[in-house]
Automatic annotation (TrEMBL):
PANTHER family: ACETYLGLUCOSAMINYLTRANSFERASE, EXOSTOSIN LIKE GLYCOSYLTRANSFERASE 3. It is found in: Endoplasmic reticulum membrane. The chain crosses the membrane at residues 31-53. One of its GO terms (molecular function) is glycosyltransferase activity. InterPro entries: Exostosin, Exostosin_GT47, GT64_dom, Nucleotide-diphossugar_trans. The lineage of its organism: Eukaryota, Metazoa, Chordata, Craniata, Vertebrata. This is Exostosin-like 3. It comes from Eurypyga helias. Its main location: endoplasmic reticulum.
Length: 719
């Protein structure tokens, strides 16, 4: 092109196309310059940029090569490269640590695998041991059942066989005085499974019925109608009962007439075996008209006996029937505290035979030792008691002459003075009540002494019986030394010392026991009749009939929020909180002692002190035996529930003698109109071990408040 341009210029600037050569030359120069500029930019600009990038941070360093090669260490000194290097080093260290941990975990996994294998082997061994133990337990249970079957075979109730003949085959005793249960009672009519049926004659069907005291007869008939043992079928009866007293004096039949009427009873069977003749006394002057009557093998229950007439273990000394047709007014009964009252002891009575000798000078003790003892000790008793009263050492009240006409009494018996209300007012002021037995020692008990005993127990005066030969009511089944003092008459000079030496605790215990005896066996006609039947039933070892079940009316109530746990129960530690009832409740074992209880627990009587959980006073001769007893709670008191052998968990098993650790228990609370106290008491039961349910007996005609919210304690609350 240059050559062409030069040629064109030589030729005058005209090319083939006729254009001037100058124009063509200028255009070529511009293209050349443009290409050169572009070449410079493309070559030098990257070099400058490279230099700038490599020397921007070290512009002041002298001698630094700009375009020379750089080593790897020099390049790492660059900031962003250094950061990357640091990150790489950190990641490398973490990777090394993770690798070390991985190796440790692998080693632990290997160890755990070894342990798992060892545990699997242990489980297999334990399964084998458990299987062996199950086999041993099964064999032991089988052996136990075999032993139980050998020692306690299952027996069905025997078929009751009644005698075919009315005549007894066992010989009569030499005299009626020798009658006892083994020779005057027909056990064949009273099997253990008979239920103790009792047939009661209707006194109105016989002539002597018109002579009976109307109140006594009405009370007796009312009691008979409600008694569980009374039957109308005389053919299956175990005992036959006839009421013959108390009789009214003007129309009383002659002894021979009454004897003939008794022997003519349809089931008398020639000798009256298995018969009980009841002679109740409502007054202190009741006469012993049965003394001159031949009663054969019949048992007698009355309040007056002579020693030649009374047959221990066969006849029954009963208490007088004071409250014949009316319940005693318990509101008028004085409280048991204070222990000591105004008078240390009191006595009011009159005996005509002793009045003349009481005015004479009593002979000395030395004269009596020489053989000149008085006919009876009443003279000394009168003199000694008067001396105690005159000494003013203690407040005592003794009166041996009645202000009014004394009650009619038996010979040598101390007659009662005044009316019953007057005597009770004096006894309410007396700590002790003296009871002087009849001077005739052949009279072992009289209606007058029984009446004094009844009144003393009723108002809380502790009886002091002078005369150890006395036979107190129900004496063969009641321990009278727990409620009364029985002192021989020759110790009359020591009576004052003995009474002053008794502590307040003993006085209160005797008064409480006396109150219990009076309420249980003396107070009403039902108690007297039930006690008489219970004594006979216990003597012949027949268990009591079960108590009739009555459906209670449940009061609907609303439950509120869940109650908190008592702090005392918060930390149970290793305490077993009882079974989780995921299935029906565990049944109690059967009570196997129903037919042996009356034979093994005779003469057992207690009255425990009050406490959070105390048994109520009970004797086995109470018509209610332990196997039929119900829970009777009074604030904090409980009575055992029957139907099982007992036991409510380990703690209750150890404390109360239970035998089934799995059993639970029920709390019964008796209350009324104390809603706040009741709610607090219920809340404290939350979390109580072995608690099955709570039964609240609302003892008031006024129902609980409808808006009352009952606590939720985790178990049912029945009201």
């Amino acid at each position: 092109e240059l050559m062409t341009g030069y040629t064109m210029l030589r030729n005058g600037g005209v090319g083939n196309g006729g254009q001037p050569w100058v124009l063509r030359w200028s255009s070529r120069i511009r293209l050349t310059w443009l290409s050169f500029t572009l070449f410079v930019i493309l070559v030098f600009f990257p070099l400058i940029a490279h230099y700038y990038l490599t020397t921007i941070d070290d512009a002041d360093d002298a001698g630094k090569r700009i375009f020379g090669p750089r080593t790897g260490n020099e390049l790492c000194e660059v900031k962003h490269v250094q950061d990357l290097c640091r990150i790489r080093e950190s990641v490398s260290e973490e990777l090394l640590q993770l690798e070390a941990k991985r190796q440790e975990l692998n080693s632990e996994i290997a160890k755990l695998n070894l342990k798992i294998e060892a545990c699997k082997k242990s489980i297999e061994n334990a399964k084998q041991d458990l299987l062996q133990l199950k086999n041993v337990i099964s064999q032991t249970e089988h052996s136990y059942k075999e032993l139980m079957a050998q020692n306690q075979p299952k027996l069905s109730l025997p078929i009751r066989l009644l005698p075919d003949k009315d005549d007894v085959t066992f010989p009569l005793p030499k005299s009626n005085r020798n009658c006892r249960l083994h020779n005057c009672f027909d056990y064949s009519r009273c099997p253990l499974t008979s239920g103790f049926p009792v047939y009661v004659y209707n006194s109105d069907d016989y002539p002597f019925g018109s002579s009976l005291d109307p109140l006594i007869k009405q009370a007796f008939e009312a009691t008979v109608r409600t008694n569980v043992y009374v039957t109308e079928n005389a053919n299956i009866a175990c005992v036959y009962i006839i009421l013959v007293g108390e009789m009214q004096e003007p129309v009383m039949p002659k002894p021979t007439e009454l004897e003939q009427q008794l022997h003519s009873l349809p089931y008398w069977r020639t000798d009256g075996h298995n018969h009980l003749i009841i002679n109740l006394s409502r007054k202190s002057e009741t006469q012993n008209f049965i003394y001159n009557i031949s009663t054969g093998r019949a048992m007698i229950a009355q309040s007056t006996f002579y020693d030649v007439q009374y047959r221990p273990g066969f006849d029954i000394v009963v208490s007088p029937l004071v409250h014949a047709m009316s319940e005693p007014n318990f509101l008028e009964i004085p409280p048991q505290v204070p222990v000591k009252r105004k008078y240390l002891f009191s006595f009011q009575g009159e005996k005509i035979e002793s009045l003349r000798s009481s005015l004479q000078e009593v002979r000395s003790f030395e004269e009596e030792i020489e053989g000149n003892a008085p006919a009876d000790y009443d003279d000394r008793i009168i003199t000694t008691l008067k001396a105690v009263q005159d000494s003013k050492l203690d407040f005592v009240l003794v009166e041996f002459t009645c202000k009014n006409q004394p009650k009619v009494s038996l010979p040598t018996e101390w007659a009662l003075c005044g009316e019953r209300d007057d005597r009770l007012e004096l006894l309410k002021l007396s700590t002790f009540a003296l009871i002087i037995t009849p001077g005739d020692t052949r009279l072992v008990i009289s209606a007058g002494c029984a009446m004094r005993l009844f009144e003393a127990l009723e108002v809380g005066a502790i009886p002091v019986v002078l005369g150890e030969q006395v036979q107190l009511p129900y004496n063969d089944v009641i321990q009278w030394n727990e409620a009364a003092l029985i002192i021989p008459k020759p110790r009359i000079t020591e009576v004052h010392f003995l009474l002053r030496s008794i502590s307040d605790n003993d006085l209160l215990a005797m008064r409480r026991q006396g109150r219990f005896l009076w309420e249980t066996y003396f107070s009403t006609s039902d108690n007297v009749f039930s006690t008489v039947l219970a004594i006979i039933r216990t003597r012949i070892q027949i268990p009591a009939a079960p108590i009739r079940e009555e459906t209670a009316v449940e009061i609907p109530h609303r439950s509120g929020k869940a109650a908190g746990t008592d702090p005392n129960m918060a930390d149970n530690g290793d305490l077993d909180l009882g079974p989780v009832e995921t299935e029906p409740p565990y049944a109690s074992p059967k009570y196997l002692r129903n037919f042996t209880l009356t034979a093994m627990d005779i003469y057992r009587n207690w009255n425990s002190a009050p406490g959070p959980f105390h048994l109520f006073p009970y004797t086995p001769f109470d018509p209610v035996l332990p196997s039929e007893a119900k829970f009777l709670g009074s604030g904090t008191g409980f009575r055992p529930i029957g139907g099982g052998a007992g036991g409510s968990g380990k703690e209750f098993q150890a404390a109360l003698g239970g035998n089934i650790p799995r059993e639970q228990f029920t709390v019964v609370m008796l209350t009324y109109e104390r809603e706040e106290v009741l709610m607090n008491s219920l809340e404290r039961l939350n979390g109580l071990p072995y608690l099955n349910k709570v039964v609240v007996v609302w003892n008031s005609p006024k129902l609980p408040s409808e808006d009352l919210l009952w606590p939720d304690i985790g178990v049912p609350i029945m009201v």
